[in-house]
Design a protein that fits this description.
Elements (H helix, E strand, L loop, with lengths): L14 H17 L4 H7 L4 H10 L17 H14 L1 H21 L2 H13 L4 E4 L15 E5 L2 E12 L6 E8 L2 E8 L5 E5 L11 E11 L12 H35 L1 E2 L2 E2 L4 H29 L5 H25 L11 H13 L4 H13 L6
Parallel strand pairs: 1-4
Antiparallel strand pairs: 2-3, 3-7, 4-5, 6-7, 8-9
Helix pairs in contact: 1-4, 4-5, 4-7, 4-8, 5-6, 5-7, 7-8, 7-9, 7-10, 8-9, 9-10, 9-11
């Protein structure tokens, strides 16, 4: 029995949802799985080549309407994210930042001219975007950001820096959030602008098949039409983050599924004491616990997808999905690593790569502590952030 056959998850999916999932899985099988261990080990990623292929397949900004975007359901997007992360969390992050952060910011908060200018090329993968919100000293509390944009005539002058930015050093444009005299505003910043600098962050032992960068803005001069006109407060970037967190609820289940499938296959052929280790009670209990959590996580993700498609999803519900599924996926990866024993620490198998990646996924897009407090505030009516 496949782990997701336990409660017949397949029966909950529509025909189009299955088709999008299967097409994405095929793309991952062809373009990601054969090389991702090498990319991870070497800390490199052919981002532009991959992004072009994902664009041709309609995966970039796929849940957005118009401007060359596929206009799929949110649930279909989530299932695609699951298959991408089954390949590698870094691959799903690259696509998520492009579609759910950079493209969504322009689609939701940009002017008609900005949407026409950027979104069709971003949907094709011809233009790569990144999302500059986090700073070295402003992670869980983005309101404390120091990056500042001041008016100078009809222009804006941007100064400051951003940290841990996926796609940063390969991006053609950056969506940058900055303090202004009128509050926090968003800007579309071409990365060839004078004063813009991006440097790759090295020495990572997680998300190595992902480009992570620091962005520095040294008096970057921007025209008035670089401003996202509908983004007028911190609520705008937080809304973008909710789009990405939704995808993580699905994506983490892809990584967990890949680990569990690998461990099941390994345990069926690995013999100790003259029998496969899958026949031992302790090992079977581990598999049962993991399969139950995987199916529960999928049910949660699918429920969020249905709510989002109905236009009824709330930030607290997204937090519940991100908190639970990132936590349980990491637990599953760790348990699978243990089942593989010494083989579990090599890149011959995908498990430790997923395990290390999920340590980052557990933290980014809101730590589990922050999502706990979001849900806690919803339950009690009392904020514990300060």
């Amino acid at each position: 029995m496949h782990p997701l056959d336990l409660i017949d998850i397949e029966d909950m999916l529509g025909e189009e949802e299955r088709a999008i999932r299967d097409v994405t899985r095929g793309i991952v099988d062809d373009t990601v799985r054969p090389k991702v261990a090498m990319w991870w080990e070497e800390g490199e990623l052919p981002a532009r080549e991959l992004m072009t292929g994902f664009g041709e397949a309609g995966l970039l900004g796929m849940h957005l309407e118009g401007y060359g975007c596929a206009g799929t359901s949110a649930t279909a997007y989530g299932l695609a994210a699951m298959e991408l992360e089954a390949g590698d969390s870094g691959i799903r992050s690259m696509v998520s930042v492009q579609g759910s952060l950079a493209m969504y910011a322009i689609h939701r908060f940009g002017s008609p001219e900005q949407r026409e200018r950027w979104l069709p090329d971003m949907a094709r993968g011809a233009v790569i975007g990144c999302f500059g919100l986090t700073e070295a000293d402003a992670g869980s509390n983005p309101a404390s950001m120091r990056t500042y944009a001041r008016k100078d005539g009809t222009d804006w002058v941007l100064s400051g820096s951003k940290m841990w930015i996926t796609n940063g050093s390969v991006a053609d444009i950056a969506i940058v959030w900055a303090r202004t005299d009128d509050g926090i505003r968003g800007f579309i910043v071409p990365t060839d602008s004078p004063g813009f600098h991006a440097s790759v962050i090295h020495h990572k032992v997680s998300l190595r098949a992902s480009i992570t960068s620091e962005l520095v803005f040294d008096d970057v001069r921007l025209p008035q039409d670089a401003l996202l006109p509908e983004a007028t407060s911190l609520g705008a970037p937080l809304r973008c983050l909710n789009e990405a967190r939704f995808g993580i609820a699905f994506g983490t289940m892809g990584a967990a599924r890949e680990c569990l499938e690998t461990a099941l296959d390994y345990a069926a052929t690995r013999e100790q004491f003259d029998r496969p280790i899958s026949g031992f009670q302790l090992t079977q209990r581990k598999f049962v616990d993991m399969a139950v959590e995987l199916n529960k996580g999928m049910l949660l993700a699918l429920r969020l997808g249905r709510l989002k498609d109905a236009g009824r999803i709330t930030p607290e519900q997204v937090s519940a999905g991100k908190l639970n599924n990132a936590r349980e996926a990491l637990n599953i990866a760790r348990e699978c690593r243990a089942i593989l024993g010494g083989s579990g620490i090599t890149l011959e198998y995908p498990v430790i790569r997923h395990m290390n990646n999920l340590e980052s996924v557990y933290t980014y897009e809101g730590t589990n502590e922050m999502h706990t407090l979001v849900i806690g505030q919803a339950l009690t009516g009392v904020s514990a952030f300060r």
